[in-house]
Design brief:
Helix content is 63%, strand content 3%. By secondary structure, the chain is an all-alpha fold. The strands form 3 sheets. A two-stranded antiparallel sheet has the order 1-2. It has a two-stranded antiparallel ribbon with strand order 3-4. A hairpin with a 5-residue loop joins β5 (372-376) and β6. The protein is globular, with a radius of gyration of 32 Å.
Length: 705
C-alpha cells in the first residue's frame, strides 16, 4: 500500500504532461486512421484495396496485407484513446487522493492528531506542563482509531488507482507487434474488465476440482484477488454467477472441510480465515446486484439452504444454510437479500418439529464439519464448527444497522430471537464446551447495531445521545424482553447490553435519578433488572459504569435552569441505583467462590465506540470519576468487604466524592462551593445516593439491611 510520503511526493505535473502528450498522439493517429485536413489515411487505403481489380496473388496476399495494415492504424488510434483515458482518469483520481489526504491531515492536526510518513496516526497534544493554561484537547482512543481508518482508506484507494491503472496499461502493451481494439474507456471500465477476467480465471481453477489440494501459495493468490476485487461488481457478480448457488456452497464445503481427516489447521487454517472474510465481503457486494441473473442467483442460494452438501463416499453432509452463513461473517449484505434469507432460515427451523438446534445444526453425525476460520477454537487453533447458521446471519445483520433496526422492531422476530429460540454451544453441542454460545454472542452484536444504528465492527466517534424513534423502540423492546428473563439472562449478552445502555446514558441517568420511578424516559424496573444482570460480569459492569459516568458528568456540565444542586442530587441517585444493581448481582452469585476475585480494574474494550464523546473538560471529569470508582472496587477486594447491601454501598465513597468535586468545579458560584461549605455538597450527593439506593431496593423487592 502507498505511504503518506509516497502519495504526497507524487509528481502529478509529470503525469499531466503525459496526458497532454497522449492527447496529441490520439489526434495524430486518428488523422492517420480516418483522414482529415486532406491527408491520405489508412481508411482511404483500405477502400482502394477493396475497390482495386486485383487478380492472382495480389487478390489474396496483397489485399489482405493492405487491409490488415490499414486496420492496425485504426487499432493504434483506439489503443491510444485507451491510454489517454486511463492516464487522464488516473491523474484526476490521484489529484483527489492527494487533496483528500491533505484535508484529512489538516483536520486531524486541529484535533491534536499527527499523521506520520508511513500513514500511522498518533496523539500530538502537548503535556500539561507544556500546554500551561491552554485548553488543548487530547484525542481519545476511539478518535485515533477513526482517524487511522480514515487515513488507511485514503491510502488504500490511492493504491487501488495505481494497481488498476498499471494493470490496464500493461495489458495494452502486452503485444510487441500488434495493436488492440479492446482497450478500456477509463479506470472504471478497466476495473470492471479486470474483475471479470479474474473471476473467469478463478472459476476455471475451481472447476478443475480438488480445491482442498491447492497449495498455500495458490490459496494466498486467490485471497489477494478477493481482497483487491471484493468491492468490484465486475468480479463479485461474475464469480457468483459463474459458480452458481450450488457451486458457491460446494466450493466452501470442499475448501473449509475436505473430510477424510484433512481438516485444515496451522497456517493454512489462519489463511482460510482471511479467505473466508474476503469471500464474505465479495458475496456481500454481489448481493446488491439487481440484474435478473443476480436476482435468480440470490433466490437459488436461499432455496439451497435446505440441501445437503458433502463429499463422494462420505455420508456426513452439511446444510446449505450452514455453509452460506459462514460466508456472511463480513461485509454489508443487501437488506432485501438478508430479509429473504431470514425468512428462508426461519421457515426451515419452523418445519423441523420439534426444533432442537443442537440436534439439527450441531449433530456431528449429520455434518460435523469445520466451517468457520475467523476465530480460534478450543484447541487455540483457527477453526470452529460454525454449525449454527443463525450466528453467521446475525453477524451479517450487525454489519447492516439500518436493517438490524427494522428487523428487531418486528415483534415476531424479536420474540423468536430473544425469547423463543434455543441456542447451543457450537464447540460441544451435547456437552458443556467452553460455556460460550457463539450465536448468542452474534445476537448481542446485532442488537447493538439495531439500537444504536452503528456497526459494532467499525470504529466511530459518537457525539450525541440522539437516536431515531425506531432505534429507541428496539431498545425499549429489548429491555422488556431481557428483563423478563430474570436470572436466565444470557451471559453472552451482558457486554453488548452494557454498551447499549451506555449509548442511551442520558435516558438512563434521567430514569434512574427521577424522584418518581414512572417519570423517566425508560421503564425503571426493567432497566434495574437488566443492570443487575449486566453487573454479574466484571467487564460488562465496568462498561456500564463508564457509560453512565459519562452521562452523569455530561449532565453536570450541561446548561440547566434552576438550582444546579439538582444535577448533584441526580448524580447521587443514579449511583445509588447502580449500587443496588451491583448488590443484587453479588447476592445472586454469592455461592460462586470466584466472585470476589472477579472485581478490580477493568478493561473497557469497545465501550468508547458507543459512548458519546464530550469536550476535554468533561472527559477529565469522567476520568477522575472512573479512577475513583476503580479505587472503591479495589478496596472492596483488598479489605474483603462483606456483600451485605449497606456495607457494599459504603465503599462507594471515593466515587461519590469525585462526582461531588466535579460538580463543585463546574458550579464555583454556588453557595455549596464557597470556602468552608464542602460538607454541604458532599452530604447532598451522599444522601441522594442512599435515597436512590433505597428506591431501587424497594422496586427490586430487596429487604433493607
Amino acid at each position: 500500500m502507498l505511504t503518506v510520503q509516497e502519495l504526497n511526493n507524487l509528481r502529478l505535473g509529470t503525469l499531466k504532461t503525459s496526458v497532454d502528450d497522449w492527447r496529441t498522439m490520439v489526434g495524430r493517429l486518428e488523422k492517420l486512421a480516418t483522414g482529415g485536413d486532406g491527408q491520405v489515411s489508412a481508411e482511404d487505403l483500405q477502400k482502394k484495396a477493396y475497390a482495386a481489380d486485383w487478380v492472382g496473388v495480389n487478390a489474396t496476399v496483397s489485399r489482405q496485407f493492405v487491409t490488415r495494415t490499414a486496420a492496425q492504424f485504426d487499432d493504434a488510434a483506439s489503443e491510444a484513446k485507451s491510454v489517454l483515458a486511463i492516464l487522464s482518469d488516473a491523474h484526476a483520481a490521484f489529484t483527489q487522493h492527494k487533496q483528500d489526504l491533505q484535508t484529512a491531515i489538516d483536520e486531524l492536526a486541529k484535533r491534536s492528531i499527527y499523521v506520520n510518513g508511513n500513514g500511522s496516526v498518533i496523539a500530538s497534544a502537548p503535556p500539561p506542563a507544556v500546554a500551561g493554561k491552554a485548553d488543548i484537547p487530547r484525542p481519545t482512543d476511539q478518535e485515533l482509531e477513526v482517524a487511522q481508518r480514515r487515513i488507511t482508506r485514503i491510502l488504500w484507494e490511492a493504491t487501488e488507482t495505481d494497481r488498476i491503472a498499471a494493470r490496464a496499461l500493461r495489458l495494452l502493451a502486452k503485444d510487441k507487434y500488434d495493436f488492440t481494439d479492446q482497450g478500456s474507456t477509463g479506470l472504471e471500465d478497466a476495473d470492471h474488465d479486470q474483475g471479470r477476467a479474474d473471476a473467469e480465471y478463478w472459476r476455471k481453477e475451481i472447476a478443475k476440482g480438488n480445491v482442498e489440494d491447492w497449495s498455500e501459495e495458490k490459496l494466498a493468490r486467490f485471497n489477494e484477488t478477493l481482497k483487491n476485487q471484493r468491492d468490484n461488481p465486475g468480479f463479485t457478480e461474475t464469480l457468483a454467477l459463474d459458480l452458481g448457488a450450488d457451486g458457491t456452497l460446494q466450493f466452501w464445503r470442499d475448501l473449509a472441510d475436505p473430510g477424510q481427516g484433512k481438516t485444515p489447521d496451522g497456517d493454512r487454517a489462519k489463511l482460510l480465515g482471511d479467505v473466508q472474510k474476503n469471500l464474505s465481503m465479495s458475496l456481500a457486494g454481489a448481493s446488491h446486484g439487481t440484474s435478473p441473473e443476480m436476482e435468480a442467483w440470490k433466490k437459488d442460494l436461499i432455496a439451497a439452504g435446505g440441501k445437503l452438501y458433502g463429499h463422494e463416499g462420505i455420508m456426513a453432509k452439511t446444510y446449505g444454510f450452514q455453509l452460506m452463513s459462514n460466508l456472511m461473517v463480513k461485509g454489508k449484505f443487501d437488506e432485501g437479500f438478508l430479509n429473504d434469507y431470514y425468512k428462508g432460515l426461519r421457515t426451515f427451523e419452523a418445519e423441523k418439529k420439534p426444533f432442537d438446534p443442537a440436534s439439527i445444526w450441531g449433530n456431528p453425525a449429520l455434518g460435523g464439519a469445520q466451517l468457520d476460520y475467523t476465530a480460534k477454537g478450543p484447541d487455540a487453533d483457527y477453526g470452529t464448527t460454525g454449525s449454527d447458521p443463525m450466528a453467521g446471519f446475525l453477524k451479517a445483520v450487525s454489519h447492516n444497522p439500518d436493517y438490524a433496526t427494522e428487523l428487531f422492531n418486528r415483534e415476531d422476530v424479536a420474540d423468536y430471537l430473544l425469547t423463543e429460540r434455543e441456542y447451543y454451544d457450537e464447540d460441544d453441542p451435547y456437552g458443556k464446551g467452553d460455556g460460550t454460545v457463539q450465536s448468542r454472542d452474534a445476537l448481542g452484536k446485532a442488537l447493538l447495531a439495531a439500537g444504536t444504528g452503528l456497526n459494532p465492527d467499525q470504529p466511530h466517534v459518537v457525539t450525541s445521545y440522539e437516536h431515531t424513534d425506531a432505534q429507541r423502540q428496539v431498545f425499549d423492546g429489548t429491555l422488556r424482553r431481557l428483563a423478563d428473563k430474570g436470572d436466565d439472562f444470557p451471559p453472552e449478552l451482558r457486554d453488548d447490553m452494557a454498551l447499549l445502555v451506555g449509548n442511551y446514558g442520558q435516558d438512563v441517568h434521567q430514569t434512574t435519578s427521577s424522584l418518581n420511578t414512572n417519570d423517566g424516559p425508560l421503564n425503571y424496573k426493567e432497566l434495574l433488572e437488566v443492570s443487575k444482570q449486566v453487573s454479574r460480569d466484571q467487564n460488562a459492569y465496568g462498561i456500564l459504569m463508564d457509560g453512565v459516568n459519562q452521562a452523569i458528568i455530561a449532565d453536570i456540565h450541561a446548561e440547566h435552569q434552576g438550582d444546579p444542586v439538582e444535577e448533584l442530587k441526580r448524580a447521587g441517585r443514579t449511583v445509588g441505583f447502580l449500587e443496588s444493581a451491583r448488590y443484587q448481582a453479588i447476592a445472586t452469585d454469592k455461592e460462586d467462590p470466584s466472585w470476589p476475585a472477579k472485581w478490580g480494574y477493568h478493561v473497557v474494550g469497545g465501550a468508547a465506540n458507543f459512548i458519546p464523546v464530550a469536550g476535554d473538560a468533561v472527559q477529565r471529569g469522567v476520568d477522575a470519576a472512573a479512577y475513583a470508582w476503580q479505587l472503591d472496587e479495589q478496596q472492596r477486594i483488598d479489605e474483603e468487604i462483606s456483600s451485605e447491601n449497606t456495607k457494599t454501598f459504603e465503599t462507594r465513597q471515593e466515587h461519590l466524592t469525585a462526582l461531588g468535586e466535579e460538580w463543585a468545579r463546574v458550579n464555583t458560584g454556588h453557595k455549596f462551593t464557597q470556602p468552608g461549605n464542602g460538607y454541604l455538597y458532599l452530604e447532598s450527593i451522599g444522601d441522594s445516593a442512599f435515597n436512590g439506593n433505597s428506591t431501587a431496593n424497594r422496586i427490586a423487592g430487596v429487604a433493607p439491611q
